[in-house]
Every structure is written in C-alpha cells, then in structure tokens.
Amino acid sequence: MINQDEGRQTLADEIKASSGINFNACLHCKTCANGCPFLEGMDYAPNAVIRLIQFGMEEEALK
Predict the structure, then answer these.
(1) Is residue 43 included in any domain, yes or no?
(2) Count of domains in the chain?
(3) 7 falls in which pLDDT band (50, 70, 90)?
C-alpha cells in the first residue's frame, strides 16, 4: 500500500509486503518485550519501535 499523503511506500508498508506482518495490528501489549535479551541495550522497547514505525518515524526507529 502506498502512503497517499507522501506518495511513497512507508517502512510499515515495506515490512508488510515482504513479511506479511501488519504493524498496524499491534495492540502494544508489550508481549514482545517479555524476556527480550536485547531490551537493556535498546533505546526503545520493541513495542515502542513498532509505534515509531506506525507514526512514520522511520529514522528514529532505525537509529
């Protein structure tokens, strides 16, 4: 799906096209952070990274 506001495909769109995962379906239950061995070294929890992608903040999510 192309983001019509910007006329380009978003990172969420690219992820969905390549993996079939719809980030907009995330309920932010934080299950993905439970037991995550990388959580201590991350600036954002996994669900927060998903939220950044949902908001189109691709650069911030990829930092």
Answers:
(1) yes
(2) 1
(3) low
